[in-house]
Amino acid sequence: MIGLTHYLVLSAILFSIGVVGVIRRKNLLMLFFATEIMLNAANVAFAAISSYYNDLSGQMFAFFIVAIAASEVAVGLGLLILLYKKYGTLDLDHYTMLKG
Predict the structure, then answer these.
(1) What is the pLDDT of residues 58-85, one digit of tens each?
(2) Architecture of domain 4-95
Protein backbone atom coordinates (compact mmCIF):
# COMPACT_ATOMS: atom_id res chain seq x y z
CA MET A 1 0.00 0.00 0.00
CA ILE A 2 1.21 3.49 -0.83
CA GLY A 3 1.37 5.66 2.27
CA LEU A 4 2.15 9.22 3.19
CA THR A 5 5.88 8.57 3.26
CA HIS A 6 5.89 7.51 -0.39
CA TYR A 7 4.19 10.73 -1.46
CA LEU A 8 6.52 12.87 0.64
CA VAL A 9 9.58 11.12 -0.80
CA LEU A 10 8.21 11.72 -4.30
CA SER A 11 7.63 15.35 -3.42
CA ALA A 12 11.17 15.71 -2.06
CA ILE A 13 12.64 14.13 -5.21
CA LEU A 14 10.60 16.43 -7.46
CA PHE A 15 11.58 19.47 -5.41
CA SER A 16 15.26 18.47 -5.58
CA ILE A 17 15.03 18.10 -9.35
CA GLY A 18 13.49 21.57 -9.52
CA VAL A 19 16.20 23.11 -7.36
CA VAL A 20 18.93 21.52 -9.48
CA GLY A 21 17.15 22.83 -12.58
CA VAL A 22 17.00 26.36 -11.18
CA ILE A 23 20.68 26.30 -10.23
CA ARG A 24 22.04 24.68 -13.38
CA ARG A 25 19.95 26.05 -16.24
CA LYS A 26 21.01 29.03 -18.32
CA ASN A 27 17.86 29.22 -20.44
CA LEU A 28 14.99 31.27 -19.01
CA LEU A 29 12.33 28.91 -20.36
CA MET A 30 13.96 25.93 -18.64
CA LEU A 31 14.18 28.04 -15.49
CA PHE A 32 10.41 28.50 -15.57
CA PHE A 33 9.93 24.75 -16.09
CA ALA A 34 12.12 24.01 -13.07
CA THR A 35 10.09 26.46 -10.99
CA GLU A 36 6.90 24.70 -12.06
CA ILE A 37 8.36 21.36 -10.98
CA MET A 38 9.08 22.83 -7.56
CA LEU A 39 5.53 24.18 -7.26
CA ASN A 40 4.09 20.81 -8.26
CA ALA A 41 6.23 19.12 -5.62
CA ALA A 42 4.67 21.40 -3.02
CA ASN A 43 1.22 20.54 -4.40
CA VAL A 44 1.87 16.81 -4.05
CA ALA A 45 3.04 17.28 -0.46
CA PHE A 46 0.06 19.47 0.51
CA ALA A 47 -2.46 17.12 -1.08
CA ALA A 48 -0.89 14.03 0.49
CA ILE A 49 -0.74 15.52 3.97
CA SER A 50 -4.30 16.82 3.78
CA SER A 51 -5.52 13.43 2.61
CA TYR A 52 -3.64 11.72 5.43
CA TYR A 53 -5.21 13.94 8.08
CA ASN A 54 -8.66 14.08 6.38
CA ASP A 55 -8.45 17.86 6.24
CA LEU A 56 -9.16 19.94 3.15
CA SER A 57 -6.87 22.86 4.01
CA GLY A 58 -3.85 21.31 2.26
CA GLN A 59 -5.88 20.77 -0.88
CA MET A 60 -7.02 24.39 -0.75
CA PHE A 61 -3.37 25.50 -0.51
CA ALA A 62 -2.59 23.29 -3.51
CA PHE A 63 -5.43 24.93 -5.44
CA PHE A 64 -4.04 28.41 -4.68
CA ILE A 65 -0.56 27.29 -5.74
CA VAL A 66 -2.01 26.14 -9.08
CA ALA A 67 -3.65 29.55 -9.51
CA ILE A 68 -0.41 31.36 -8.69
CA ALA A 69 1.53 29.10 -11.06
CA ALA A 70 -0.92 29.81 -13.87
CA SER A 71 -0.55 33.56 -13.43
CA GLU A 72 3.23 33.22 -13.22
CA VAL A 73 3.27 31.32 -16.50
CA ALA A 74 1.05 33.87 -18.23
CA VAL A 75 3.17 36.85 -17.17
CA GLY A 76 6.49 35.02 -17.49
CA LEU A 77 5.86 33.72 -20.99
CA GLY A 78 4.78 37.16 -22.12
CA LEU A 79 8.03 38.61 -20.82
CA LEU A 80 10.02 35.78 -22.41
CA ILE A 81 8.46 36.47 -25.79
CA LEU A 82 9.35 40.16 -25.52
CA LEU A 83 12.93 39.37 -24.49
CA TYR A 84 13.33 36.87 -27.31
CA LYS A 85 12.00 39.34 -29.88
CA LYS A 86 14.31 42.08 -28.62
CA TYR A 87 17.54 40.13 -28.09
CA GLY A 88 17.06 36.93 -30.11
CA THR A 89 18.01 34.58 -27.28
CA LEU A 90 16.82 33.36 -23.90
CA ASP A 91 20.30 32.62 -22.54
CA LEU A 92 20.87 34.18 -19.12
CA ASP A 93 24.52 34.96 -19.87
CA HIS A 94 23.45 37.49 -22.50
CA TYR A 95 21.21 39.31 -20.03
CA THR A 96 23.96 39.92 -17.48
CA MET A 97 25.26 42.69 -19.71
CA LEU A 98 21.97 44.62 -19.57
CA LYS A 99 22.13 47.97 -17.83
CA GLY A 100 19.31 50.14 -16.68
Answers:
(1) 999 999 999 988 888 889 889 889 988 9
(2) Orthogonal Bundle (1.10)
